[in-house]
Write a structure and sequence with these properties.
With 324 residues, the protein is an all-alpha fold. Helices cover 64% and strands 0% of the residues. The chain contains 15 helices and no strands.
């Protein structure tokens, strides 16, 4: 539950948007809610503490930020880079979610349509290009964030954060607090929000700008060796595009038609509603008293009603019918 505060961010964003978070999980019980939100608030308390320590160190100039950079500028750069990384993390989730949505359901925003046209042009090569450019951009931002959030305080100097002991200050200097902040605030929280509202992410103007930036970084070719490695892996493993197995979003929607009751298959291995579930009481009594009727109805339930073996002895049935 160390990063469960990201769920709280998702819940707050969904509440502000007036849209409930859709999930396939069963509703939590009271005990599960207590356990879940208990971990959420524990994570939130740790996150607040990590932010407090990091911001105090930033304003005091006690991080590994380059000399000459004003403390206030370092704080602004810290939050700005986290926002950029968060957008890139959310864009990755939103793009793959939208790739499985039919084109006419991808929103009415001009920006959303423009983003989709760029991503899925031709054989959707730009989607792979975005992934490469995104990784370059994220790694670069993380390099600067690490400089900003890593504490540089001598544990034996006596000037520790909040006067903690040297051993605790050594732990702070390892950078785990900054890693926790970026994991929750600059990564997981954005991914959760993007998974719940992928269309909204597409309509964000910054999405379009960052997409163009990522495609530019990919176009430099500095990481194009990834294409060669991916091609080798594809040839060895025999990978194919998802559309080969499940079709495009439009094809899947076209095949998602209602059931034709006259064409439903029944028989062994196929779950279907048996006719006996709503059988009249008189029929049940007749089946209990006449094995031919019981056999006939059972064969009907198994889809064998047209076979000669399924036809009962009519005389035995008539004789067994109880009188008025």
């Amino acid at each position: 539950g160390l990063v469960h505060s990201s769920y709280l961010i998702q819940i707050v964003v969904a509440a502000l948007a007036g849209k409930p978070v859709e999930t396939r999980e069963a509703p939590r019980t009271d005990l599960q809610n207590i356990f879940f939100f208990g971990r959420c608030f524990m994570s939130l308390a740790i996150l607040i503490f990590a932010f407090t320590v990091t911001l105090v160190a930033l304003f005091n100039g006690q991080t590994t930020m380059w000399e000459g950079v004003p403390n206030g500028v370092a704080v602004v750069v810290f939050f700005l880079l986290m926002a950029v990384v968060g957008m890139l993390e959310g864009m990755q989730i939103a793009f793959f979610a939208v790739s499985r949505i039919p084109e006419d359901e991808r929103g009415e925003s001009w920006i959303a349509k423009k983003v989709c046209n760029i991503l899925f042009f031709g054989d959707a090569h730009n989607l792979a290009g975005f992934m490469i450019g995104r990784q370059l951009c994220v790694v670069s931002c993380m390099f600067f964030i690490a400089r900003v959030t890593s504490l540089d305080i001598d544990p034996d100097s006596g000037d520790t954060i909040f006067g903690v002991s040297p051993s605790i200050q050594k732990f702070f200097n390892l950078g785990f607090l900054g890693a926790l902040i970026t994991t929750i605030v600059a990564s997981i929280a954005w991914q959760l929000v993007a998974s719940a509202f992928p269309i909204a992410f597409l309509g964000n103007p910054f999405t379009f700008l960052l997409l163009k930036l990522c495609l530019f970084l990919e176009a430099t070719g500095i990481c194009n060796a990834a294409y060669v490695i991916a091609w080798i892996k594809k040839r060895i493993m025999g990978f194919q595009d998802d559309t080969v197995y499940i079709g495009t979003a439009e094809e899947r929607r076209q095949k998602n038609m209602g059931d034709d009751d006259d064409a439903l298959s029944v028989g062994p291995g196929i779950i279907s509603k048996l006719p006996l579930t709503e059988a009249p009481e008189e029929l049940l009594k007749l089946m209990a008293s006449n094995k031919h009727v019981k056999s006939f109805v059972s064969n009907l339930a198994n889809g064998n009603g047209d076979s000669d073996d399924a036809k009962p002895d009519i005389e035995s049935v008539v004789i067994s019918v109880p009188g008025p």
